[in-house]
Design goal:
Number of helices: 6
CATH architecture of the largest domain: Beta Barrel
Largest sheet: 16 strands, antiparallel, barrel
Strand content: 35-45%
Radius of gyration: 37 Å
CATH superfamily of the largest domain: Porin
Distance between the termini: 39 Å
Low-confidence stretches: 11-38, 81-96, 98-102
Shape: elongated
Oligomer: single chain
Structural class: alpha+beta
Number of strands: 20
Helix content: 10-25%
CATH topology of the largest domain: Porin
Order of helices and strands: HHHHHEEEEEEEHEEEEEEEEEEEEE
Number of domains: 2
Length: about 500
């Protein structure tokens, strides 16, 4: 009950009592003397009728009191309803005056019209703006990654700290069925700040249309957000995966996620890059999670799929062979022209605190008319694979997105304090690039380390790596195939 509710009910009850018609004993006696000829039965019937009237009035007043209690609980709208019905009796008229004393001033808007058109708040780990009718929504998300890199002595950049990414995004919906996202990377040193800018028409899950600037649907490792990577950097296989490009795509999720597909056309030349031929790059990706609805922990997290892509290049450069630590290039790009073909196969398995992911990627880029006298040269072919395993030793379940620790460091208002969530990990990857000349080279790497989730927003990542190169003269330490790296990251994401 609102403050002052009890006082108003008490006052109303007092007014009702004083307004009740009464039959004092002296008045009854006077009536009896003034009508001496009436039979006792007639007088009894008169009194009985008066008692019935009193009962009706008392019941009416009891209902009014209940209405007043309800209107103090429900607010101003109920008060106005009671005032409108109180004019049917003198007692209710008095109570109507009492309610009117607390009613809003004349000319003011009803409470329902005082609701804001937009609400703001914090939900699911990020800030939002949302219209009260649910048609418009904007979520503000972002993350910052502060890295430290340490390298074994050799031909590489100096040990350093750096802000690897600082991304801010606005995403949401317009008129319910139109999703959008705009994301920029404020840490980009090449001047290409834009990362995502697209609209997704989402009327039904099974058939969606997207157009703008976004990632091509190729490689499960590339399609995972950089904020959810298990290691500081993606594997060697990621050298062969296309990333963001202007284009359009049709996609769908069928049977609650047991089957997914994406098919699109893109420029295929990189961030905001124009196409160099009249042929767009076509991409098709299929992925299945056939036992998603199973009760078995060993089956429901198993997914597998693949992708193919086909396009053309003219006056561009081939794939690059860059080490996993991004500190050394063991195969420099060379001019390509002609057909580009990509293929990918992938599998992931999430089972409680454990996860396993693997994929194979292959790319072939033609070199038409680039040889002596306009002859064709052998194409540049890249083949790569990777496999990784992670395990949350504190017992949380592994997901494709944010890990929420059972016990946050320092507590943070979520129950007892703890040490956050801890994860062990290991990964192997291999990349071979060949152009049928002595320039062909291969590298592989083995990384292991820990992930410490202080809470759902802050994470500390440590990777220890051994990078190896087939050709010792073309390695960070000429003459030595092995190269040791330590990388760390503190990430804040919301």
């Amino acid at each position: 009950m609102k403050p002052g509710g009890h006082f108003r009910i008490t006052l109303a009850f007092a007014l009702l009592v004083f307004s009740m018609p009464c039959v004092p004993a002296q008045d009854a006696k006077k009536r009896e003397v003034s009508n001496p000829g009436k039979e006792p039965t007639v007088q009894i019937e008169q009194l009985r009728g008066e008692v019935e009237q009193l009962r009706a009035i008392v019941e009416e007043q009891r209902q009014v009191i209940l209405e007043i209690k309800k209107q103090t609980d429900d607010g101003e709208t109920k008060r106005r309803e009671i005032s409108a019905t109180a004019s049917s009796s003198p007692a209710r008229a008095q109570l109507s005056n009492l309610s009117a004393s607390t009613a809003p001033p004349a000319g003011s808007k009803p409470a329902s019209q005082d609701k804001p058109a937009v609400v703001a708040g914090w939900d699911s780990g990020h800030a939002f703006l949302r219209s009260t009718d649910g048609n418009f929504e904007t979520n503000i998300t972002g993350y910052v990654q502060f890295d430290g890199r340490g390298y074994q002595e050799g031909n590489h950049p100096a040990n350093t700290f750096l802000v690897r990414r600082a991304r801010l995004a606005a995403e949401g919906k317009l008129f319910r069925y139109f999703d959008y996202k705009v994301q920029a990377d404020l840490a980009d040193t090449n001047g290409t700040l834009l990362r995502d800018a697209y609209v997704n028409v989402h009327r039904i899950d099974a058939l969606q249309f997207r157009f703008g600037h976004f990632k091509e649907p190729f490689s499960q490792e590339e399609l995972r957000s950089s904020s959810n990577l298990d290691f500081v950097e993606r594997s060697l296989a990621n050298n062969l995966a296309p990333s963001r490009s202007p284009g359009l795509m049709v996609s769908g999720v069928i049977n609650k996620g047991t089957f997914e597909y994406q098919a699109g056309l893109f420029n295929g030349k990189g961030l905001q890059a124009l196409n160099t031929t009249s042929t767009p790059e076509g991409v098709l990706r299929l992925r299945a999670t056939p036992w998603k609805a199973s009760s078995s922990i060993w089956l429901r997290g198993l997914s597998f799929g693949g992708a193919v892509a086909r396009g053309r290049s003219q006056g561009g450069l081939s794939i690059r062979g860059q080490s996993e630590s991004r500190s050394f290039t063991f195969f420099t790009p060379e001019p390509v022209a002609g057909k580009i073909t990509r293929a990918n196969g992938e599998v992931s398995w999430l089972a409680g605190p454990a996860s396993f992911r693997a994929e194979y990627d292959q790319t072939s880029q033609g070199r038409e008319n680039l040889g002596p006298g306009g002859t064709n040269l052998p194409g540049v072919v890249g083949k790569a694979y990777m496999a990784q395993f992670t395990y949350l030793i504190t017992g949380e379940y592994k997901t494709d997105t944010t890990i929420n620790p059972r016990r946050n460091l320092f507590g943070d208002g979520r129950g007892d304090a703890g040490f956050g969530a801890w994860e062990l990990k290991a990964r192997y990857s291999n990349l071979q690039i060949s152009d049928s000349t002595a320039r062909s080279n291969r590298a592989d790497s083995f990384y292991f380390g820990t992930n410490w989730y202080l809470n759902r927003f802050v994470r500390h990542v440590v990777d220890f790596g051994i990078e190896r190169f087939k050709d010792p003269p073309r390695s960070p330490r000429p003459g030595d195939r092995n190269y040791f790296v330590v990388m760390s990251r503190i990430q804040v994401a919301f």
